[in-house]
Amino acid sequence: MTSDREQAVFEAGIKLGALYHQWVGTPISRISAASVEKAIEQAVILQPFVEEITVRLDRSLMNENRFGYSELSGMMFDVEIITRVGFTYCRARLSPETGYPLMKIVECHEIS
């Protein structure tokens, strides 16, 4: 049997991993970035155990190809997600760290 804390951590990790692999490679431009951020947030918030999500994409990394768009890469993501299982909250991030799009648990806490 897993604890609420373990499940909240798992849910945060699985949501970030799915988000990353689902959206990497998506055609994007500086003009469409805000709508893609919103689409990702609206899709992920529907999933069980997700309390909040914020997605920001680094527009400075969006270099247009000859057809006028870029492809979304992992280094463009700055995502924070909060999951809740029972009374346990987990905050996790996906963001560039030393040249790699790193996913990590930031904190977990229980409310009484």
Fill in the keyword field for this structure.
two-stranded antiparallel sheet; 6 strands; four-stranded antiparallel sheet; alpha+beta; elongated
What's the gist of this structure?
With 112 residues, the chain is an alpha+beta fold. It contains two helices and six strands. The strands form two sheets. Strands 2-4-5-6 form a four-stranded antiparallel sheet. It has a two-stranded antiparallel sheet with strand order 1-3.
Q: How large, in whole angstroms, is the Cα Rg?
A: 15 Å
**End-to-end CA span:** 21 Å
Class per helix and strand makeup: alpha+beta
What oligomeric state is this?
single chain
Spatial strand arrangement across the major sheet? 2-4-5-6
- Name the overall outline: elongated
- Would you report the number of β strands? 6
| Helix percentage range | 25-40%
Query: Order of SSEs, N→C?
Result: HEHEEEEE
Low-confidence stretches: none
Average pLDDT confidence is 97
Q: Number of helical runs? A: 2
Strand content: 35-45%
The largest sheet, given as strand count, sense and whether it forms a barrel, is: 4 strands, antiparallel
